[in-house]
């Protein structure tokens, strides 16, 4: 697997589109997941994901093949997402409230109520709510939380992607988790 | 929150990061058994982590790879090599067509030149189009 990837990258460095297509297929879901959870919008996430791969292709000569390709790629995706968030920041209201009905299933779930809401509805609703809660996190906590929980990466990998020490990654994840806890507690309190 | 509780919150985080020793885990368990505010806090933190874990991992949109490839800058060197290996006949024709078209251009120039000299006016003779 590792060796195959290194061979693919050597071919990409010679301008082989087919080899690059294999790399795109291998990582498109992960890159899309990172971008989607970072910006919370499918269309924007698709544009950012495409841009991530196009940049990777254009700058492949700068990639050191002794390093981890996914780390490098996820770093591009994270940085592009953060840039995009910063560009549109003034128009995004951080106080945006969810409509009242949205939280019902989640409240039921959090409180361990007996009437278990329909699985499908819970899924869709939770998806919306958690995405909303993630989007309320400051971007540096957000990226750490996403890389850990959505991509299931180790603290060490996250520190390499974000270019910060492992200790700082931990702090950011802890703070992110703590903010989410407080928001969720607010849901519970409304019941 | 008192300093004692803060210490336990950092223990909670260690446990959630799966970095707590058995001793630390035991310490937290013992405290939680007695302290309801820490018990609730830990339960809520764990729930936040669970919710994040439940979030579905989305699939990239359809045709994603193709859309990316369509936007890549073409590598000419490679493109030519690829094209030649896929279309050897066209490549051979293209190679033959080059001197042919040069000859035709030369021939056309000569014709125009001759006409100009001969009749004092331009008459462009119909030349066979060079299709390559
Ligand atoms: Zn306590």
Automatic annotation (TrEMBL), chain A:
Known Pfam families for this protein?
A: Sigma70_r2 (PF04542), Sigma70_r4_2 (PF08281)
Lineage: superkingdom: Bacteria
The family annotation for this protein states: Belongs to the sigma-70 factor family. ECF subfamily.
Transcription in keyword set:
yes
Organism encoding this protein: Sporolactobacillus putidus
- Gene label: sigW
Q: Name one GO biological process term.
A: DNA-templated transcription initiation
Q: Which residues form the RNA polymerase sigma-70 region domain?
A: 23-89
The UniProt keywords, alphabetically, are: Sigma factor, Transcription, Transcription regulation
Q: Mind telling me what this protein is named?
A: RNA polymerase sigma factor SigW
TrEMBL record, chain B:
- Is Coiled coil a UniProt keyword of this protein? no
Q: Which residues form the signal peptide?
A: none
**What are the alphabetically sorted keywords of the record?**
Membrane, Transmembrane, Transmembrane helix
- Membrane spanning residue stretches: 89-107
> Key word tRNA processing present in the record?
no
Q: Where is the Putative zinc-finger domain?
A: 8-39
- From the record, what ranges are coiled-coil? none
Provide the family line.
Belongs to the zinc-associated anti-sigma factor (ZAS) superfamily. Anti-sigma-W factor family.
The name this protein goes by in its record: Anti-sigma-W factor RsiW
